[in-house]
Amino acid sequence: MDGFNDSEEREEEEVGTSSRDFSGDQLCEESWLQLGIGRAREPFLPQISKSYLRIKDGRMTIRLLKKYLVSKLGLEDESEVEISCRGQRLLPLLTLQHVRDNIWQLHETSTSLTLVPESSRNEHLMTLQYGRSS
């Protein structure tokens, strides 16, 4: 799928096209996203094999992540999967920058900001959950 490159080293995928600073309106070249299973509905969706994604452009939308999951999970359509952050269902047109600034960071505590192992101090890990749509 366009914009996604497999990497065997850290069970990660690369997303987006341009390198940017993590502060302000953009994400830096070493920003990370983790996709994990959220509150599951039957039939349950499996955990994708490469749950860490490197984000290169904060303008990437949730719709692109849904397309990625559909491809990786062998689903028929985007409507079969939903993505959430901190329990809030994310609309397909939202950008990762918007999610980061308005959902993830607003509720951030010192224990929820995690550095990826073997990463620089600028590599932040934003965790999103996915599951079968209701």
Automatic annotation (TrEMBL):
Stretch forming the signal peptide: none
Region annotation Disordered: where it falls in the sequence: 1-23
InterPro entries: LAX2-like
Highest taxon above the source species: Eukaryota
Segments of skewed composition (Acidic residues): 1-15
UniProt xrefs under Gene3D superfamilies: Phosphatidylinositol 3-kinase Catalytic Subunit, Chain A, domain 1
UniProt cross-references to PANTHER family, sorted A to Z: RING FINGER PROTEIN (PTHR47290)
Name used for this protein in its record: E3 ubiquitin protein ligase DRIP1
Organism the protein comes from: Platanthera guangdongensis
